[in-house]
Predict the 3D structure of the following.
Amino acid sequence: MTPEQYEELIIKVPDFPKPGVIFKDFSPLLKQKLPEVIEDMSKLIDWSKVDLVLGIESRGFILGSALALKNNKGFLPVRKKGKLPPPVISVNYDLEYGSDTLEMAVNDEKLNVVIVDDVIATGGTLRATLQLCKKNNFNVQAVSALINLKFLNDLHEGDTNIQSVLNYE
């Protein structure tokens, strides 16, 4: 799909979740074009170097599990605090609307992973997930996102191998 075709199916919701923010609701896109979205996201990753897909709560679960299934990989969720049974590792982080904690199941073996999220905004959640990976024997091969709001973050593709279908400068 072209960026214009994506844009036609993404609804911009002004002042949500707070004044001044324009929320990009891609639910209509997934409703109508999920196979195409997953295909486009999948093309950006070298899957021969990946053992496992990590999906960031919550819309990263949708995209991450679909990418894992399409590419015959396992899937592991990255969750908010208190949502996973022990043992877990955790990281506290700041995000655009406050602070939070992310957790993932403890991992004993070295694995190559792809981190999947829906939107990269300020990058706080992604940075926390990268910290979890470092603490948990995961070697991050790439980060895959549907949307990267580059004007809100200082993350660069070369630094963390960020692959996104839509980029907003």
In short: The domain at 46-168 is CATH 3.40.50.2020 (Rossmann fold). The CA atoms of residues 5 and 29 lie 9 Å apart. Residues 27-42 form the longest helix (16 residues).
